Each structure stands twice: as C-alpha cells, then as structure tokens.
Amino acid sequence: MAAATARAKWMAGAVAVAVIAVVAFILWRGHTRTRQLQRLQPNKQSAGQRISPGVTSVSSSVTFTGTISARYDMPIGIEGDAGRIVGVYVEAGDHVKTGSTARED
Predict the structure, then answer these.
(1) Is residue 80 within 8 Å of residue 67, measured between CB atoms?
(2) Which whole-number Å values give the CA distances from 36 to 23, 24, 25, 78, in the listed order?
(3) 15 pLDDT more than 90
(4) For 21-79, how does the pLDDT look when each residue is reduced to its tens digit (9 = 90+)?
(5) Which partner from 34, 37, 46, 63 sits 20 to 30 angstroms from 26, CA to CA?
(6) What is residue 16's predicted lDDT score, i.e. its pLDDT?
C-alpha cells in the first residue's frame, strides 16, 4: 500500500512539472513572438492616430541569379523552316481545334 501511495505522489509530481513546463513554454514563446513583431514594426501607430491611405511610388529592385529555361521543350517549326517566331499561343497538351492559331511568324 505504501508503494502505491509513493508511486501516486511521484506521478502527481511529474504531471505538475509537465504542466508547469508547458505553461512556461507558452508564455516564453508568446513573449519572444511579441518582441519579434516589435522589431519588425518599429513605427507602430498608436490607437488614437488616424492615417489616410495614399498613393506613393515604391523604388526598389529585386535581383535573382539562376537559369531561365523553357517549361516544355517542343519543336514549333518544320526542319529547314527559317524565320522568327513572334509568339506561341498553346502549350504541350493543350486541346486545339482545326484552324486555330498555334504560333505566329
């Protein structure tokens, strides 16, 4: 009987520690999340201020490096056909009707 009581006390203690750990983690996570949001929004408006929407120009650019390639590699001309293709209006697998424009020279 004494072993069962000791075991129950240990289980109750373990559950209490687990609950305290979970609550501490949730509070810590919320605190760090709030601090991260404050760093991202340094000019946060107070509740009493009004802001009118407007149009402003955005001057920024984005640079990427990489390779540009076709989504589907397919021949669009016949062998020996010379010329410049201006536009391709269909993709591989598209259903077309007889007489519809697939490309423009």
Answers:
(1) no
(2) 20, 18, 16, 59
(3) yes
(4) 999 888 877 666 666 666 666 555 555 667 777 777 777 777 878 887 777 777 666 66
(5) 46
(6) 94
Query: Which structure tokens are listed for 33?
Result: 């999340």
Q: What is the structure's pLDDT at 52?
A: 73
Full DSSP string of 43-96: TPPPTT-----------------S----SS----S-TT--S---EE---TT---
Cα Rg, the chain, nearest whole Å: 33
pTM as predicted: 0.31
CB 101 within 8 A of CB 89: yes
Amino acid letter for position 42: P
pLDDT in the model for residue 82: 64
CA atoms within 13 A on the CB side of 92: 7
Residues in the chain: 105
CA dist list (Å): 84 to 44, 51, 54, 101: 55, 53, 45, 16
